[in-house]
């Protein structure tokens, strides 16, 4: 009886695959497409998570945000319509003053947004978000211009309603493409403002609008431009992150005394916001990856079909081996190995293409290949080979040697 080793079976499988190189490539194509898609999508998901986490880290862990309306649902995710509520509702000056009086040992920073066109001698940028706040808003949000790019506005400029403005990086480039924007004049709602600074390149804010296309002005100037004294959000900066939870509870109690409705406002810190955003990214990544994984199933069916064809083509070979004493189990293992090798070839090429694709999109979009995604890709590829290789392998192992030798 012939009982070949696993190494012998592996070598035999490789020889069989190499005899039909073009068939091997075409058979692995479905797996290649599936694995490439999975690697790219997981890389984008991982990159987005890291990018957003880095943004939160740059803001520091000492900030608490107070927003009008209900931002989070009872499960910790974003409440339905929360973003619209935040954009259309606001706090009053009395709310802000009340909170500022009650909260001790923390910095209370208001923020009020104006949407308007900004014009320069080079053209107009339409519907720009202009955030009005105090002198500490830039420090809290890490958008203070660095040396050589101007400065942030002062408390005195805010109190005196000095018409000054700080531009986001891209907005500065768009309004003044041929020279530095610092020291130049822009017009907002008929009012002339002096550009005193341009922020460094920041990108989008937590996956939202680009900070580089926004502008920042003293909040008193924002009130004059909008004709309103409403406040869209309040930032509470504590001295130490260990005070976060106690301060959140204190703010919640204060606001409940004022509103008597827990859904009229939201109090949260960056970790809650980060957790909710990452949950959304994870769900999207899993959903899109699941769709991409359909290619793996299609690839697996392709492998099964080709292996069935291979069994038919090699019927006499199988019959001859059985006639001289080959174990059915050895034949089953060999065909199973062939199926796994085919799927792993597709997996390997898919990982390589996915990695190269990630490098290609990285300059334009946050993406990061992780070891876990590579291991998962190879693991799934092997599993596809095993699952879809079983039927052809069983068929080969069960062939009657007499009938197989008669096969023409």
Automatic annotation (TrEMBL):
ABC3 transporter permease C-terminal domain span: 291-401
Subcellular location: Cell membrane
Residue intervals of the MacB-like periplasmic core domain: 24-253
Pfam families in UniProt: FtsX, MacB_PCD
Signal peptide: none
Membrane topology classification: Multi-pass membrane protein
GO molecular function, one term: hydrolase activity
Key words, A-Z: ATP-binding, Cell membrane, Hydrolase, Membrane, Nucleotide-binding, Transmembrane, Transmembrane helix
EC number: 3.6.3.-
Chain ranges passing through the membrane: 25-45, 280-309, 330-357, 369-391
Magnesium among keywords: no
InterPro entries (UniProt xref): ABC3_permease_C (IPR003838), MacB_PCD (IPR025857), Macrolide_Exporter_MacB (IPR050250)
Example of a GO cellular component annotation carried by this entry: plasma membrane
Family: Belongs to the ABC-4 integral membrane protein family.
Protein name: Macrolide export ATP-binding/permease protein MacB
Species annotation: bioreactor metagenome
